[in-house]
């Protein structure tokens, strides 16, 4: 465990918890894409298939449980909670899961480290995580005005991505045989998707104005 | 060599 990895995990954890706390306290999910949240729940469910079979560390197991629990809780709130569900921008959040899930699944069947169910699902989860933010970014573009918490949520997710890249670079130079093309390329794609959002986020922060995205 | 350490990341 290096400092970049820890910082990445912590910002990732904060992003999910900030969102869950927001939904729980203000009983609103305005501006949040249910499609993205469902995709993240699917990402965690398919990546952590090893949770009960391979023990890595207490830290690892606890983090996995928190990510699974919080992502499914968010989906539950947005779909089932009678107040929260009313604030959901259903008409604006029109991105189809199918268009992201199917290509990722096909890619995982072709590009994987081993052709076993667990390995294919693991590769699928990485490909899907890379693009799962797209429905959220589309929703941000459409609704234009972004409240602070939604902005912070995407900002924390972006920070998590950046720290993970530093973590890979660090591990590449410090650990022998640490080469993971699937993780790196999908991680890089994912980070690039945030670059555009970050550009506007920093501009609005620098000029001290409310974040607005161009059409 | 085969890596077994990849799944220590979240």
Automatic annotation (TrEMBL), chain A:
Signal peptide (from-to): none
Superkingdom as given in the UniProt entry: Eukaryota
Subcellular location: Endoplasmic reticulum membrane
Keywords from the named record: Endoplasmic reticulum, ER-Golgi transport, Membrane, Protein transport, Receptor, Transmembrane, Transmembrane helix, Transport
Parts of the chain that traverse the membrane: 55-77, 98-115, 121-140, 152-170, 182-202
InterPro entries: ER_ret_rcpt
Gene Ontology MF terms in the entry: ER retention sequence binding
A Gene Ontology cellular-component term: cis-Golgi network
Pfam families registered for this protein in UniProt: ER_lumen_recept (PF00810)
Membrane topology summary: Multi-pass membrane protein
Any GO BP: vesicle-mediated transport
Family to which this protein belongs: Belongs to the ERD2 family.
Protein known as: ER lumen protein-retaining receptor
């Amino acid at each position: 465990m290096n400092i970049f990895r820890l910082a990445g995990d912590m910002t990732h954890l904060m992003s999910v918890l900030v969102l869950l706390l927001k939904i729980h306290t203000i009983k609103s999910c305005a501006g949040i894409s249910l499609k993205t949240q469902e995709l993240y729940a699917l990402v965690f469910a398919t990546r952590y298939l090893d949770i009960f079979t391979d023990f890595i560390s207490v830290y690892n197991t606890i983090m996995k449980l928190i990510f699974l629990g919080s992502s499914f809780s968010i989906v539950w709130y947005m779909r089932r909670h009678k107040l929260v569900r009313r604030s959901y921008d259903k008409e604006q959040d029109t991105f189809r899961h199918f268009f992201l899930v199917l290509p990722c699944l096909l890619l995982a069947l072709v590009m994987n480290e081993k052709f076993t169910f667990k390995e294919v699902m693991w590769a699928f989860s990485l490909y899907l995580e890379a693009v799962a933010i797209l429905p959220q970014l589309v929703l941000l573009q459409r609704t234009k005005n972004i409240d602070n918490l939604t902005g912070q949520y995407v900002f924390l997710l972006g920070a998590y991505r950046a720290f993970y890249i530093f973590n890979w670079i660090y591990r590449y130079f410090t650990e022998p045989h640490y080469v993971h093309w699937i993780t790196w390329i999908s991680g890089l794609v994912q980070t690039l998707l945030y670059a555009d959002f970050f550009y506007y986020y920093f501009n609005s922060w620098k000029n001290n104005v409310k974040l607005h995205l161009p059409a | 060599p085969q890596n077994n350490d990849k799944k220590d990341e979240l």
